[in-house]
Design goal:
This protein is an all-alpha fold. Helix content is about 70%, strand content about 0%. About 10% of the residues are buried.
Length: about 90
């Protein structure tokens, strides 16, 4: 169920794939949010290590994702991401 909730919708671009239905599934499963945050952290760290242009995309998307996914119990993960995006 967690993997299903984290799976993107079909779409021609990132915006279409991360639509409201995608977030609705994610936000109703605490463990799916945790897994998605782990995925985001891993992607951001890898993009920094590889000096990838994806870092800029992740940074642009972060405020929306933070707003949609934020839960107090995962505050440490969001603080960690906040600091990664200050680099």
């Amino acid at each position: 169920e967690i993997i299903y909730c984290c799976t993107e919708e079909k779409g021609r671009n990132r915006s279409e794939r991360h639509n409201q239905e995608y977030y609705n599934l994610l936000i109703h499963n605490k463990l799916a949010i945790f897994v998605k945050l782990c995925d985001i952290i891993a992607n951001v760290k890898f993009s920094l290590l590889m000096n990838s242009s994806m870092y800029i995309k992740y940074k642009k998307e972060y405020n929306e994702r933070r707003t949609m996914l934020y839960r107090q119990e995962y505050d440490d993960m969001f603080v960690y991401l906040d600091n990664l995006f200050k680099i």
